[in-house]
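Same chain as my last thread, 880 residues:
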Amino acid sequence: MLEKTFDPKTVEPRLYAAWEASGAFAPTDNPDAEPFSIVIPPPNVTGSLHIGHALNNALQDVLIRFERMRGKAALWLPGTDHAGIATQMVVERQLAASGNMGRRDMGRDAFVDKVWEWKAESGGTIVNQLRRLGASCDWSRERFTLDPGLSAAVRKVFVQLYKEGLIYRDKRLVNWDPHFQTAISDLEVEQKEVDGAYWHFAYPLEDGSGEIVVATTRPETMLGDTAVAVHPDDERYKALIGKRVRLPIVGRLIPIVADEYADPEKGSGAVKITPAHDFNDFQVGKRHGLEAINILDAYGKINENAPTDYQGLDRFVARKKIIEQFEALELLRGIEKTRHQVPHGDRSGVVIEPWLTDQWYVDAETLAKPAIEAVETGKTVFSPKNWEKTYFEWMRNIQPWCISRQLWWGHRIPAWYDAEGNVYVEETEEAAQAAAGNKILTQDEDVLDTWFSSGLWPFSTMGWPEKTADLERFYPTHTLVTGFDIIFFWVARMMMLGLHFTGEVPFERVVINALVRDEKGQKMSKSKGNVIDPLDLIDEYGCDAMRFTLTAMSGQARDIKLSRQRIEGYRNFGTKLWNATRFAQMNGCVRVAGFDPANVEQTLSKWIRGEAAKTAKEVTAALETAAFDEAAGALYRFIWNVFCDWYLELAKPILNGSDAAAKAEVQAMTAWVLDQCLLMLHPVMPFITEELWDKTTEEGPARDGFLMVQDWPDYPDSFVDLAAEAEIGWVVGLVTEIRSLRAEMNVPPGARVPLTLAGAGPEASDRLARHRDLILSLARLGSAELGDAPTGSVPFVIGEATGALAVAEFIDLAAEKARLTKEIAGHDADIERVNRKLGNPDFLAKAKEEVIEENRGKLADAEAAKAKLAAALARLAGVS
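reply #2:
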């Protein structure tokens, strides 16, 4: 007999260890099995499991477990990313905290050795946390982006792209982090709203005929100005186009150019152009052949290209001095306070500078063309499909991809230089020396952007460039599950590189999962204090409850508002199934050898068999299309509502009755349906289902291994019996309607209300007679007869008949009418109040989107509640 309660804390680690030890996570070696593969979006080796990881990996595991049970060779390949800047930062902090020397004092090789030591000791945290989530990855194939095989793939790709002219060196603007002294990607830039100002500076015309006023939030960059831009159609400045102004402080003469980048509606309509320190200005500079003068060094200090008085000053000290000097020169025309977005390094926290520097670039525009076509032609599809538009917008406007980073931890760029500065790009130093005629060479100091190596992930993890069995069998992968925020940074890179190096798309389908927000719809952040730790949720509610919650709420294109109440509710769902299994055991519902549900005779057995078959089809269709919420919804309805709430109640009279044959059939059928519940629910709630599978093994025929490797339910259409469905459906519909009316009318639970049924045909009359005792019990009725509605009854429709509940003697009609009227008035007030808010343009303009959505939800709830109460009041109006 089952324990009274399910204990996740003891069951989960025991089951996971048994699964992993059995080798069940590896794909079947059956050569005829259809392959189904997923590569994990590799979390940073420095990371720990957050709620976004929990959602993303739970959904992947649902798909893998589902396809494994369908007999496919299901491979979920795990691994971690070396996470260049994040890992280097962690180790540097650790060295500082322990009083050791800094990395520059240690030297590159010693520091990299320290990072490898850290990885060996602490780098497996998130991998073990994924195990706690129930992730059925094939850990024997676990990869790391700096593994020797993956590193070899990176070098081969770099060298080949270079020799094809698709990788090159160039001097361009990058996001520069002065703290780490490295270029960083857009994804590592965090925009923060800060207090600032527009300083309005006057630049005198060369001929002394006047001035032109520009505004800037970054006064220090004026030291690098090489033009002033005005809109070609701006009548105020047409006569000035082509003239020059003298740049204050610096003294440089710079031209006034016509460019549509200048907005006549913004400020004075004239814009200072600093090509070396602004991404937009850089493009303007290219269009007009302007010089790009870099006035900052790698630490954010003013360099030798500025006047002597400024050299060596921190950029913000220089800002203050420039403002003071403009004021002294009487060229400061105004200061306008503002709140504006300023880019910060997400890890360093310092203000990021657009900085002109030599870096390595990929010709992303060329690589993007086949990747665009692959989605246009449906070789790779996005789900939801609307994300394809985002993909196309990014890819069709793609810029050169900066792939070099000024770090020590990562894939070192396979480029070597001789004393004259000539570059030799080869996979090994020996090959480079051979190409250089055995000159003394120095390797490039930079490492590659981590997105470069992770862009190879779907095929490098399977052994490419070697022609391995895994590559042959599992590439292209089937599904990628990832977040919308890295469609460009990762999905696009994998598409470009996968197509270029393998000739095939890296995955057939990209499933974009939602963003997990708090219960009010706000984005989670440490500063708000609303971060939910998935490990805390697992500790409190069990892994299954959290997984089911995330799956049930992951509707396509809809963010998840996560609350503990929802998780608690789905824990109760697991408890409901556990208790149903205990009930079955206590009532002798044991699996019977040779039992065939196709041959049952009881109407109830035929009905539940059909419901199970329909649910299996519904869940299968939903999981095939990654409609995770629909799959969870179908499972919940079948297990909680159909099986637990209705079937077991309808079965009780038979289980307690004297018909031995009927009882035996229902006992066997109940055990069979329980098995189907466990099979269908397993991908979403693997632990409780596996435990129930094991605990119900002792009775009946022997099981063949773990639940996780059983066959997925697939029933013939004949399992649905329309006559049984109609009959039991009629009983369920009648009882449901009566229960609803009793609740609406506030009929006391113990009141045995009489029911009459008028206009019933022969079929309904037979059903009432056949199931009268059951209906009386389930609906708590005093009687259930054919006949006309008596005085003081509430009518309702059931099929072709009209039912009537005689409630007048059980309730205070006047008090009930007054209660309903009062509650309706309360909802009317709520509806009016929310409508006023939503009809207020100021509220819609200023309120956060989650607040607006919350109010729309309140309005819908209030309108639905009012409609239900109004219907009840209308029914009571006819009762006297």
